[in-house]
Amino acid sequence: IPENSQNIVGVATIKAPLEKVFGAYTDPTLFSKWWGRGHPMKIYDFDCKDGGRWHIAECTPDGREHVFAGSFHEIAANERIVQTFEYLGMPERGHVLLERTDFIAIDAGTTQIKSVSTAQSREDRDGIVATGMESGWRQSVDALGRLLEK
């Protein structure tokens, strides 16, 4: 987490070609296999296009559902995704992040993912981090690696 910033930054490297990594972010069937830390997921809506929306639930082993939603602002094939992100389990709605995820080919079989999530305030950022978002993102990226590195 950068100091004096409203941002949360995540960088990961996946041993898979850029097109496969990008596809795992945009294909709802693949997305559901890794995003929720690899837990089962419900996809209520996933219209991955400029102006589309998404609404999903991660189903945890303890039987709870963690519900998330947002809008896709830009889908630049094999380059970046810009979207909003909101965890609907917060006590009050409206703590929305703007996320930009860039996909960079390191070589033919390796892709770097760089995600920058911007909160509306540092207080929002800190509250969202306190929910476990960072570790959840890391666990999801690890699940993506396992899925694509098979």
Summarize the structure.
The chain has 150 residues and is an alpha+beta fold. 27% of the residues lie in helices and 41% in strands.
Poorly predicted runs of 5 or more residues: none
Would you tell me the structural class of the helices and strands?
alpha+beta
State the separation between the terminal residues, measured CA to CA: 31 Å
How helix-rich are the residues, as a percent range?
A: 25-40%
Gyration radius over CA: 15 Å
Number of strands: 7
What does this structure look like?
- The protein is α+β, with helices and mostly antiparallel strands and 150 residues long.
- 27% of the residues lie in helices and 41% in strands.
- It has a seven-stranded antiparallel sheet.
- Helix 1 packs across helix 2 (28-34).
- The radius of gyration is 15 Å and the shape is globular.
Question: What's the SSE blueprint?
Answer:
Blueprint lengths: L6 E8 L3 H9 L1 H7 L6 E6 L6 E7 L5 E12 L3 E8 L9 E11 L2 E9 L3 H9 L2 H16 L2
Antiparallel strand pairs: 1-7, 2-3, 3-4, 4-5, 5-6, 6-7
Helix pairs in contact: 1-2
Using brief descriptors, characterize the structure shown:
150 residues; alpha+beta; 7-stranded antiparallel β-sheet; 27% helix
